[in-house]
Amino acid sequence: MQALTAAGSEARVFDVPASTATSVDAARVIGTELSTIVKSILVIADGNPVLVLTGGDRRVDRDKVGALFGAAKTRLAGPDEVVQLTGFRVGGVAPVGHRTPLPIVLDRRLYEHKTVYASAGPAHAVFGVEPAELERITGARVEDVTI
What we know:
147 residues, alpha/beta, YbaK protein, 3-stranded antiparallel β-sheet, 5 helices
């Protein structure tokens, strides 16, 4: 993925033999714990998109995300919004290379792992990265944003 190179990352994309469209699928195919899979969840906070990166075993707390941005109302983005804003389909939203620049929040629990695995866009492409490197290449704000 060119976005990784553009961000100065040495992370390498690798192909897997089956779809990684869900966190459970990705963990099974890669052979890792569900908590090491990075989910990219697009939240709309008072009409403004925020991309949340969290572990596959976690649920995003939209109220916490909203509080970070002073938003009174939050909702999950719909599939068409996800494509429009990120350029990726639901189930394959990479943490970098978005169509629209987005504020990004990285759930602090990802730091519990040495390596985490994120989508590289296509359903059969992923990359492994240290959480600190993921924070750096995304410009993410590290917060507690899960239930």
